[in-house]
Amino acid sequence: MTLQRRLWIVLLLTWSLGPLLWQLYTSFSINEALVTPFADLPQRWTFAHYQAVLTGDPPFWRYLFNSLIVGAGSTVLTLIIAIPAAYALTRSQARISQVARVVLIGAALFPYVLLFLALLEVARSLNLGNHLLALTIPYAALSQPLAILLLSSAFRDLPIDLEEAATLEGLDLWQKLRWVLIPLIAPATTSTAILVFLFAWNEYPIALTWISDSNLLTLPVAMARIAGSSIYSVPYGAYAAATVLGSIPLILLVLMFQKSIVSGLTSGAVKG
Amino acid sequence: MSLSINNLGRRIGDRWILRHLDLDVSDGECLALVGPSGCGKSSTLRLIAGLDQVDEGTITIQGEDITHTAAIERKVGMVFQSYALFPHLSVAANLELGLKVRGCARDERQRKVRHVLQLVQLEDRAALKPAQLSGGQRQRVALARALLRDPQIYLLDEPMSNLDAQLREDLRPELRRLVLQDKKPVVYVTHDQHEAMAMADRIAVLRNGRIEQVATPMQLYQHPDTLFVAEFIGRPQINVLAAEQGVVRAIRPEALELRADGLPCRLLHREWLGSSQIWQLESPAGTLRMLTSAEQTVPERIAIGWSEQLEHRFNAENGQRIKG
User: Fold this and answer.
1) For the residues of A182-218, what is the DSSP string, one character each?
2) What are the tens digits of pLDDT across the range B163-197?
3) Which of A32, A66, A100, B136 is the most exposed place for a label (fewest CB within 10 A)?
4) Cα(B244)–Cα(B227) distance, rounded to whole angstroms?
5) For residue A9, how many C-alpha atoms fall within 13 Å in the half-sphere facing its CB?
6) Is A184 in the B-facing interface, judged by CB distances under 8 Å?
7) How confident is the model at residue A39 (pLDDT cuts 50, 70, 90)?
8) CB contact under 8 A, A159 and B51
9) How far from the centroid of its chain's Cα atoms is residue A203's Cα?
């Protein structure tokens, strides 16, 4: 490894990890240390921000839990719809699946923010406001295009021989999916699930407008409230602590599944 | 007849990729389908398995018309060219899956899998994944799966084309013994005429979706119905002379012999095969292949001839054999 390459790596890591490390630093620093970083303070570290966030009303873990529910619910709902849809798409006539693919790409590229006022009307007329699981409906719908595209390319990469062999072994459609096809696209399913989960975890406008009960807020909305809790100052420490806490589940998730995320995202790139 | 195919046809768009196919295979008989790629041999197999729709004609197994029966309900044991083993399952699980969905009890399943693994000599590989097996072992697992299906008919689609030559030769008698032991019809697709001759009781030669000839390997070799069959069956390839008055004459390389009064030739190339040798000769009649004994030395002046009874004669127009 040349020196130059090492330098590039350090630069890249600093660029991408720097802000995260700064958040971590901020979350453990007392306010004086943030404002005067070079001052000689007797004590610059504190857990106070975490304490404040975790003992608030409602406590912070409540938002984490809400977001977990919404994220998991959206992911499950998305996959339940997207897996059969993706399979059907790969097995339909070439022309139908081509048209469907173009439509799906169009839908995936559509800026969903343009929809949220209309969605708000829908939520109002169907009484979906202030229900955590109701949020999973728009989330799953908005995630469909990307999920179907990713999963259908995974199905397409499976050799047709495998499915035919399963048919000759006497497996019906459901059994084929259950025992052969779904297990084989597991890497793509995992990476799709994580993308959907991330979307639900980060989503702001819909969560902001559908949920008003402070016990049911999701993380992004809750964090925005912390940041804007006072008009005179920004509570950087508390905000950073909330950010760190909110990132932990995602970091764990990605660490746990990093192998299948990588193999899922590159599926179809190289024929095995 | 236990497999009977009548006037079978398959169309893609307006093009018939297979048409007017008639075949009968009896119990305990191995029929090989051979032909160049795209001749329709694999399509025929897929129609018998029910993986593609039949557009014309009928398929009957054990007297039962299955032309339009769904693939899942046909009892066929198929070995795919790619083996099509489920990569996420162990060898034992691969074999058990079909039994499980067909409603076989757990104890019975395990007993059957143990038995078949013994049969294909893979008892010690039951827990491995397909990727951990060699090509020959995978092929045997695929065969074991077909055997466990307890099928009415065996279909083998180029089962040995992914194996090296030595292994193919070793496996041939074993494969033949295993698929024929329960006295079911066997249809064996291969592009390799040599393998077909070694494996099959009868061979059907296909060309452009039609059958050229169905016969025993010996009949095909000695009495080819068409010039195509004569050229396809037998290596080194038969010598085909230029057409004269609407007749094409063809002579097997081993029928050529040195004759003082024969065609004068020049030796182009000599291939020594150990027990025999092939001479490539330039003659007034074109390039000829001659198969001769290993001991034969190259004379100073080469002149060759052949006995007229060993000549095959074909109509230059349509390639059909001229009888008598």
Assistant:
1) HHHTHHHHHHHHHHHHHHHHH--HHHHHH---TTS--
2) 899 989 988 999 999 999 989 999 999 999 999 99
3) A32
4) 15
5) 6
6) yes
7) confident
8) no
9) 8
Look at the alpha carbons of A31, A36, A41, A45 in this order and tell me if their dihedral is positive or negative.
positive
Out of A161, A170, A186, name the one closest to residue B72 (CB). Answer: A170
Taking an 8 Å cut-off on Cβ atoms, the answer to whether B149 and A165 are in contact is no
Whole-structure pTM value: 0.86
User: Is residue B220 classed as helix, strand or coil in its secondary structure?
Assistant: helix
- Contact criterion met (CB < 8 Å) for A164 and B51: yes
Q: Inform me whether the C-beta atom of residue B93 falls under 8 Å from chain A C-beta atoms.
A: no
Structure tokens that stand for B104 in this block:
């076989």
Nearest chain A CA: its distance from B69 CA (Å): 12
Assigned CATH topology for domain B3-228: Rossmann fold (3.40.50)
Interhelix angle for B135-148 vs B91-101, to 10°?
20
Q: How far apart are CA B87 and CA B77, in angstroms?
A: 19
State which residue of chain A sits closest to B48, comparing Cα positions.
Answer: A168
E strands, chain A, in order: none
The alpha-carbon gap from B75 to the nearest alpha carbon of chain A, in Å, equals 8
Task: Give the whole-angstrom CA distance, residue B77 versus residue B98.
Answer: 11
pLDDT score of A265:
63
Nearest-CA distance from A111 to chain B in Å?
39
Domain boundaries, chain A: 59-265
- Residue spans of the domains in chain B: they are 3-228, 237-315
Give Cα A55 distance to the centre of its chain.
26
Q: Do A165 and B101 touch (CB under 8 A)?
A: no
What is the CATH number assigned to the segment(s) A59-265?
A: 1.10.3720.10
How far is the alpha carbon of A151 from chain B, nearest alpha carbon, in Å? Answer: 18
What CATH number labels B237-315? 2.40.50.140
What are the pLDDT digits (tens) for B75-128? 999 999 999 999 999 999 999 999 999 999 999 999 999 999 999 999 999 999
